[in-house]
């Protein structure tokens, strides 16, 4: 489930052949996209889509491997779901379960290291890579590159927004 977008793909009013991205379903018959890089129509984006999702322009400008801002959070906020616990057990990774701490909303969360990032953030080869990327938690899987929350985290860490 995508948590940071109001649209399901493909959007029911998606009609690129008519120049309609479909993100304004009440206006779908008359609305025309106004700028570039809509997730529904690669040649265009409408203003309402940008306001509703927080994604402006291309997300290609946001390289996670040069950023890592989403990994720097307050303790207890990078939550782990029951699905994550099952995934960690199936991957025979009890060490991941040992590296959890009580989090918000009665969930468990990834521990933070001394630098204030998730304990799985960074490696000697790539300082912002996730050490458990293939089996990372649902919170991390659902986080959208270039979303409003991504931009806020980047701004908070002093990282360029472009």
Query: Which structural category do the helix and sheet elements fall into?
Result: mainly alpha
Percent range for β-strand residues = under 5%
Helix share, percent:
10-25%
Query: How many domains is the backbone divided into?
Result: 2
Count of alpha and pi helical runs: 5
Major sheet: order of its strands?
A: 1-3-2
- Cα end-to-end separation: 27 Å
Order of helices and strands: HEHHEEHH
Report the major sheet.
3 strands, antiparallel
Number of strands: 3
**Radius of gyration over all CA atoms, rounded:** 18 Å
Low-confidence stretches: 1-56
Quick one: overall form? Answer: globular
Q: What average pLDDT do the residues reach?
A: 75
Features:
globular; 5 helices; 162 residues; 22% helix; three-stranded antiparallel β-sheet; mainly alpha; 3 strands; disordered N terminus
Summarize the SSE layout with pairings:
Elements (H helix, E strand, L loop, with lengths): L46 H7 L25 E2 L1 H9 L3 H5 L1 E3 L5 E3 L27 H5 L5 H9 L6
Antiparallel strand pairs: 1-3, 2-3
